[in-house]
Predict the structure of Methyltransferase.
Amino acid sequence: MNRAESFKKIQTEVKEFVTYADSEQLIVNHDCLTVLKKIPSNSISLILTDPPYHATQKKNIYGDTQFKKDDEYINWMEEISIEWRRILKPNGSLYCFCDSSMSARLEVMLSKRFNILNHIVWTKPNQPGFDGWKGKMNKESLRQWYGHSERIIFCEPAKDGNLHRSSFGELLKKKRTESGLSGHKLTELTGAYGKVNHGGAVSNWETGRNIPSREQYQKIKDAILNTKKVNSMPEYEDAIRPFIISKNLEYTDVWNFESVRPYKGKHPAEKPQDMLNHIIMASSYESDIILDCFSGSGSTALSAKRNKRKCISIDIDTHWTDYTERRLNELF
């Protein structure tokens, strides 16, 4: 099923909650857990979302004061993460924003079903004159370091069966075994010899140590299909998790994208477009389906639209789903 067909199927499954739909955007107004359970398995390429932080206890953010105890919040997030794991494609990615004080516990919980790839620190710099509480507060009254940064947990779906719980490693081993090719023979056919390891790159791919390039994957695909024992192999974009980066882009795990300046009607947790663009361009392919299940003011939807991706925006607050629709119509 191609991405356009997958998007239509998702729309059909959640239609009772949809407030806006076109060929690239779905806006859904309902509780996210209910909606997530209706989304077909293995249909989302990138989950990019900003749940309530709980630790901040802000009354102007829906759900931020919902839980009295940390464990209640973690248990709720685990329910959601179970659905994230189910609906993400095997080569998908998850970026989950969170408060620094909850990040360690969320990371441990997520590691049950995901491989944690990075713990990103967003420093949240402000332009001069827009420092908010950081500029106004009495520093001498502090009794701990001021929590000015936020965290982003970046991970991929985990698949048990190899050293690094790699979904692609499991796929390759399964298809190679079905084809009757040994690791050495596939290495020979692809020319992927290692200097030390006689199994070459094939052994590393199957244990999840690294991934093949697009050219290498095509050789793997041709070699396996040419045995006539395997009927199909997924395309590169459906097999390999995208991570498209260069020396000209931010490539470390400390990010300095400026916070969104205050404006009338701003969502209190709005994220900057340049940061969302960076995530979407690094971790998705063109036409991929992106999900933001705590979509707020629709910033992920706008970024997805600008970068030629499809997007599903879910929010429980009608004010913000209506606002998202207006933003899309005004800007595009």
In short: The domain at 167-239 is CATH 1.10.260.40 (434 Repressor (Amino-terminal Domain)). The mean pLDDT is 92. The first helix runs from residue 3 to 13.
